Amino acid sequence: MTKRLSNQKISANLWFDKNAEAAVDFYLGVFRNARKGRVTYYGKEGFEFHGMPEGAVLTIEFILDGQEFIALNGGPHFKFNEAISFVINCDTQEEVDYYWNKLTEGGDPKAQMCGWLKDKFGVSWQVVPTVLADMMDDPDAAKVQQVSAAVFQMKKLDIAELEKAFGK
């Protein structure tokens, strides 16, 4: 029996139609600190419950930068939406640009705003510079308002523009 990738108490479970393998491979290629873990497969019951043939991938465990996920091939019953998203905290503009460019490849351009994006599998992400939280927590309400206004005008967040709006 193969061990779990981590002892993380809570893991995000992502329900894909039939493309969990492609999604996991994509994410493993995007995140530099990533690895795949256990893979489970449907038995004879797969078709009855999810329309999946015996031997098709059921779940794949994987880790992206320390966060454990499980990808499930569950059929077309549920779709991703923006009510759940994953935040990628970035220290530099280079890092923001990297994740934004990688995750928007083939994604939905209409779902890009304020640092949010939807990838080609329908999963929502927020690519956020870490300095933004400090700016939004500043005691100067005028600075916070200027930064907020700047964020609402952007798709991909730009640290230099945020700093300009903040008054740096």
From TrEMBL:
Alphabetical list of InterPro entries matching this protein: 3_dmu_93_MTrfase, Glyas_Bleomycin-R_OHBP_Dase, PhnB-like
UniProt superkingdom: Bacteria
Signal peptide residues on this chain, from the entry's feature table: none
Family matches, as CDD domains: PhnB_like
Domain PhnB-like: 8-128
The protein's name: PhnB-like domain-containing protein
Protein source organism: Chitinophaga alhagiae
Lineage summary: Bacteria, Pseudomonadati, Bacteroidota, Chitinophagia, Chitinophagales
